[in-house]
Amino acid sequence: MVYSLVRPVLGFLRGDEGKSLAPPGIVNRNSVWLSGMGWVSAMLQNAINHRPPLKSGVHRQVLLATIGWFIGYHITKYENYTYARLDRDMNEYIKLHPERFEPKEKKTFAEIVEPFHPVR
Amino acid sequence: MTFSHLLTRAVHINRAGSRSAFTSSKLDTANPNWLRVGLAFGTSAFLWGLLFKQHSTDVHEYKVRNDLQ
């Protein structure tokens, strides 16, 4: 029930066309990094307040790491959607303007290189 | 009255809206605030559940829209 309330909030990230994209895995780069940042900031808060960094405030460490992982997943989703959109637009442009993307004639090195006359 | 005399009087009148550093208490690390601990763990569990639910919905949508299911 709560999920159906939250989904419209997060749905703005991709839009309707974005839903046909493959979603990122639960484990993804942004998630790992941001949850690590959250964990480190919890430990930093412990250290600043003269508490043992790893053993104290485990609930804080878990909460901040979770928030980081969650935000990272949605950032990865938005990142994939953005790159897919840019790729699609680029390929459409290439298709519409083939005269700008003609394959260049390729010459081998043997044809370009001048004959070698050593001067010893 | 001098300025410092006015200030010292202010210590005794501790109205809401301002805190005097002379009256705050030290952190009590021996007795954790169990409400806050419970809220933190509960929010974490909720977020993890939300994440897994959202992921499975996304995977399902992807399969349906690309006729893989």
Automatic annotation (TrEMBL), chain A:
Predominant place of localization: mitochondrion
Bilayer topology: Single-pass membrane protein
Localization annotation: Mitochondrion inner membrane
InterPro entries: NDUC2
Sorted UniProt keywords: Electron transport, Membrane, Mitochondrion, Mitochondrion inner membrane, Respiratory chain, Transmembrane, Transmembrane helix, Transport
Family, similarity comment: Belongs to the complex I NDUFC2 subunit family.
Summary of the function given for this chain in its UniProt record: Accessory subunit of the mitochondrial membrane respiratory chain NADH dehydrogenase (Complex I), that is believed not to be involved in catalysis. Complex I functions in the transfer of electrons from NADH to the respiratory chain. The immediate electron acceptor for the enzyme is believed to be ubiquinone.
PANTHER family, sorted: NADH DEHYDROGENASE [UBIQUINONE] 1 SUBUNIT C2-RELATED (PTHR13099:SF0), NADH-UBIQUINONE OXIDOREDUCTASE SUBUNIT B14.5B (PTHR13099)
Designated name of the protein: NADH dehydrogenase [ubiquinone] 1 subunit C2
TrEMBL record, chain B:
Domain of life: Eukaryota
UniProt KW Signal keyword: no
Pfam families in the record: NADH_dh_m_C1
Compartment(s) where it occurs, according to its Swiss-Prot or TrEMBL record: Mitochondrion inner membrane
Main location: mitochondrion
Electron transport is among the record's keywords: yes
Function: Accessory subunit of the mitochondrial membrane respiratory chain NADH dehydrogenase (Complex I), that is believed not to be involved in catalysis. Complex I functions in the transfer of electrons from NADH to the respiratory chain. The immediate electron acceptor for the enzyme is believed to be ubiquinone.
Protein name: NADH dehydrogenase [ubiquinone] 1 subunit C1, mitochondrial
Native source organism of the sequence: Ataeniobius toweri
